[in-house]
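User: Structure please.
Assistant: Input sequence and predicted structure:
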Amino acid sequence: MLRPYSQFAYVCGFDDNRTLRRSFEQQWKERRDDEIQRGVNCFKQIARLASDIICHAQIGHDTNLRLVLNFDD
């Protein structure tokens, strides 16, 4: 059964860099899975993990990556 959905967050600025995109996606998935195992089930909190990856990991140093959140707090 298909359900309605909406895009609540996305990351832009990869500039067709597949390696960067894959690395970022893998890190975000790992962080997401860790948070889910810890009992976090808030999609907003999980979406915000991308910001930590962009800011604190090697991935964001020489890039223009930006997290766009489509929800209010």
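The radius of gyration is 13 Å.
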